[in-house]
TrEMBL record:
<keyword id="KW-0808">Transferase</keyword>
<dbReference type="GO" id="GO:0000162">
    <property type="term" value="P:L-tryptophan biosynthetic process"/>
</dbReference>
<feature type="domain" description="Glycosyl transferase family 3">
    <location>
        <begin position="97"/>
        <end position="337"/>
    </location>
</feature>
<dbReference type="InterPro" id="IPR035902">
    <property type="entry name" value="Nuc_phospho_transferase"/>
</dbReference>
<dbReference type="Pfam" id="PF02885">
    <property type="entry name" value="Glycos_trans_3N"/>
</dbReference>
<dbReference type="GO" id="GO:0005829">
    <property type="term" value="C:cytosol"/>
</dbReference>
<feature type="domain" description="Glycosyl transferase family 3 N-terminal">
    <location>
        <begin position="6"/>
        <end position="70"/>
    </location>
</feature>
<dbReference type="Pfam" id="PF00591">
    <property type="entry name" value="Glycos_transf_3"/>
</dbReference>
<dbReference type="GO" id="GO:0004048">
    <property type="term" value="F:anthranilate phosphoribosyltransferase activity"/>
</dbReference>
<dbReference type="InterPro" id="IPR017459">
    <property type="entry name" value="Glycosyl_Trfase_fam3_N_dom"/>
</dbReference>
<keyword id="KW-0028">Amino-acid biosynthesis</keyword>
<keyword id="KW-0057">Aromatic amino acid biosynthesis</keyword>
<keyword id="KW-0328">Glycosyltransferase</keyword>
<dbReference type="InterPro" id="IPR036320">
    <property type="entry name" value="Glycosyl_Trfase_fam3_N_dom_sf"/>
</dbReference>
<dbReference type="InterPro" id="IPR005940">
    <property type="entry name" value="Anthranilate_Pribosyl_Tfrase"/>
</dbReference>
<dbReference type="InterPro" id="IPR000312">
    <property type="entry name" value="Glycosyl_Trfase_fam3"/>
</dbReference>
<protein>
    <submittedName>
        <fullName>Glycosyl transferase, family 3-like protein</fullName>
    </submittedName>
</protein>
Amino acid sequence: MSSQFRELLKKVGSGQHTKEDLTRTEAAMATKMMLLGEATAAQIGAFMIAHRIKRIAPQELAGMLDAYDELGPKLYPENEQEKTVMVFGIPYDGRSRTAPISPLTALILTCAGVGVIMHGGDTMPTKYGVPLIQLWQGLGLDFAQLSLEQVQELLKNSGLGFVYLPKHFPNADGLTPYRDQIGKRPPLATLELIWSPYQGKMHLVTGYVHPPTEVLFRETLKLRELTIPFTFVKGLEGSCDLRLSQTTIVAASSVNAPNGFEYLKLHPHEYGIDDKEMPLGSISELLSQMEALIEGKPSRLEQAAVWNGGFYLWRYGVCADLSIGLETARELLSSGKVAKKREEIRAAIP
């Protein structure tokens, strides 16, 4: 048993009236001890559930990210002039109700010359939804066996990189079983949304469900002194996917806004997008619809892919406004350029 970890556990788990937030240094220490297995299984499980009940504070999230930065995998830009990369923070436990389309968004972006990094693991508690790695594999792009050096090379050559926890960050993946055992998402699930393995210029994109989480993200970035462009999306099931059937609220960094960010309210009907989310049925059906769209055939995912692809092309700065972004996304899909990009990425995978 770690006596040092026990003291940190006592702070967060002492009850409603005596609980305390950890300092940034303490949170980093606790996270490192969990990742390195220096805390016992009983201590780790108790810490996760106690920390969830207490609710994570900005300085604690900053400290946890410090530990991930120290121990986790890292991808680097080729040079100081390297373009900004979009890093997507998508819930590791996936989606269970609506069809995810983030791989299509990534292909549209890379097709337009935007570098994209995603990260995640296998099927994960507590939702046990479809993980990103499974969707990429179903599209013929298997990142699971790549070394970190090969991911770095793939990012350089194709503009797309995927950090796969079981292969590239086994210490973090080793904490996954605790999610099932405690039956709740621990604060690590919040960390994963805002964590980035990229060490260069980035545009951070992440989804969230509850408004306080978006505030937590902004405060954490300030503590870490990260003045980076960000796009925080109140998306489908906490993902980065914009909604089709209703307005999506987005907290978007803006150099022109007094506080450095603004809230966007995106109404798809105002841009001629008139559709509903595709329910998530079988994975084979989802992949079939993705494949059809990539190949330029009719697909139930077309409107969702155009809406999301166009939005992120605009947010990155490829397109001057959202309307042009939508037109560009639609053209990239219909012209076969996205299909060609997929084949280019497939050819670059060893």
